[in-house]
Write a structure and sequence with these properties.
Elements lengths: L1 H17 L9 H6 L14 H12 L21 H13 L10 H17 L7 E5 L2 H19 L4 H4 L8 E5 L4 H9 L8 E3 L19 E6 L11 H10 L3 E5 L24 E5 L11 E5 L2 H8 L27 H37 L3 E2 L7 E5 L3 H14 L5 E5 L2 E7 L7 H22 L1
The protein binds pyridoxal-5'-phosphate.
Pyridoxal-5'-phosphate binds next to helix 6.
Length: about 450
């Protein structure tokens, strides 16, 4: 075991050290070599060191350098050194983090992490929290609590009776809500399409004046951080209108909720603390390894009612918080260990600095691309930049060429009818030099692609 783990550490260290110099995209030869994995079931055991060798030699170069400093796709953080190291240790612990009495160390780390998170994210001090796989499941988890609460108020026990014959719930979302929010609603039986959509402005912000009049069981889903523009719904206004009418307000803050950790960007979240529930991702801006999401619910009873189970063979509820009373899963890994380690290593100042630094990198990108003559389509209020290189065909060609060049990696999107490249600066390790290097590559590749098409 000892030699194997040292070998794994040696290979992982070599991988992390290659991140700055390798091409960001997967190596095409390595991708072609993946076919070698498709072998029949091995007839017998193999040496663990040989298994590790196959993994590293076949797959390390066939992956994307997402953990590196010049990956700007989707909204993807890397792994902070303390978080990655903590993840290795937690993997060795191999704790099923369902019950405090069975795994007090991991459960206590999660409890402390939740306390710190509520403080840093400016959420109510007594809100309940849950560690889940990502924002899709965080939205699901928080909305399950919302579903419980609005139906309980109407005299319906959703957990016992299901939705058959239940009073209808009105779900209100912004026109530019994230696609996975609709998935979460569908999983809860609330329907991906059975929603009232409120029009949004050119940045994707819900127009609160256009909220419909609210009566009966209602959930309003606001967004903190649009995946394309980074824009925030006017949450204070939405909360004031919705809560006055008795609705539950949920905030999807998959990455935007972390803005609360920076005094500079906190005002974007004005009013968010008045909501009833919040979802966010730790694998995005907190920079912990995949997968890691967080749900928070103001009324802990509503979340517990939606999630807790009992069985004769399981430990009964005690004085301490049982993690599984708050999550869809009973058994799960100790996700909170990495979150605790990230927060313990950053502290309040480090957390704010990471948010501020990545946002100023995004502004740097926007300035550089505009100076080179390209169209920046969004107000760069956070860490997201949208740039067009011309018509859809040209922009798509430039995106493909930038990806193939390998200096950095960005994905594409269509923003309100216009094809664009997305730049999301979410990684802790990105430096000014990485931004300069990536900008130079983008401009060089875009000018060459345009030159070829004229
Ligand atoms: C606003 C928003 N909500 C939800 C999600 C889904 O997050 P995950 O992929 O972690 O489930 C994302 C992902 O980018 C997002 O930006």
């Amino acid at each position: 075991m000892k030699e194997l783990l040292e070998e794994a550490a040696r290979r992982a260290i070599a991988y992390t050290e290659s991140l700055d110099t390798r091409k960001v995209r997967p190596d095409p030869d390595a991708v072609a070599g993946l076919a070698a994995l498709d072998e029949p079931v091995p007839a017998g055991p193999a040496e663990p060191r040989e298994v590790l060798r196959i993994l590293d030699e076949t797959c390390s170069a066939a992956g994307m350098a997402m953990a590196g400093p010049r990956f700007f796709g989707f909204v993807t953080g890397g792994s902070l050194p303390a978080a990655l190291a903590a993840s290795w240790l937690a993997a060795a612990w191999d704790q099923n983090t369902a019950f405090y009495s069975v795994t007090p160390g991991a459960a206590q780390l999660e409890q402390v992490a939740l306390k710190w998170l509520r403080d840093l994210l400016c959420l109510p001090a007594d809100a309940a929290g849950a560690f889940v796989t990502g924002a899709t499941m965080a939205n699901f988890t928080a909305l399950a609590a919302a579903r419980h609460a609005v139906l309980a108020r109407a005299g319906w026990d959703i957990e016992s009776n299901g939705l058959f014959g239940a009073p209808p719930i009105t779900v209100i979302v912004g026109e530019e809500a994230h696609s996975t929010l609709f998935k979460s609603l569908g999983l809860l039986g609330l329907g991906r399409k059975r929603v009232v959509r409120v029009p949004a402005d050119a940045q994707g912000r819900m127009k609160p004046a256009l909220l419909p009049s609210i009566s009966g069981p209602t959930i309003v889903c606001a967004q903190a951080g649009n995946v394309n523009t980074g824009a925030f719904d006017p949450i204070a206004d939405i909360c004031a209108r919705a809560r006055a009418a008795g609705a539950w307000v949920h905030v999807d803050g998959a990455f935007g909720l972390w803005a609360a950790a920076s005094p500079v960007y906190r005002p974007l979240l004005d009013g968010a603390a008045d909501a009833n529930s919040w979802a966010t991702d730790a694998h995005k801006w907190l920079n912990v390894p995949y997968d890691s999401g967080l749900a928070f619910v103001r009324d802990p009873d509503a979340l517990r009612a939606a999630m807790a189970v009992t069985a004769d063979y399981l430990p009964p509820a005690g004085a301490q918080r049982n993690p599984s009373d708050y999550t869809p899963e009973l058994s799960r890994r100790a996700r909170g260990v990495e979150i605790w380690a990230a927060l313990r290593s950053l502290g309040r100042r480090g957390m704010a600095a990471m948010i501020d630094r990545t946002c100023s990198h995004a502004k740097h990108f926007a300035r550089g691309l505009a100076a080179a003559g390209f169209d920046v389509l969004n107000d760069v209020v956070l860490n997201q930049v949208l740039v067009s290189f011309g018509d859809a065909a040209t922009t798509n060609r430039v995106i493909a060429d930038i990806q193939a060049d390998g200096t950095c990696w960005c994905g594409g999107t269509i923003w309100q009818g216009k094809t664009a490249m997305r730049i999301s600066v979410s990684g802790w390790s990105t430096t000014e030099a990485d931004v300069e290097k990536s900008l130079a590559a983008m401009v060089r590749v875009a000018k060459a692609a345009k030159g070829r098409s004229t």
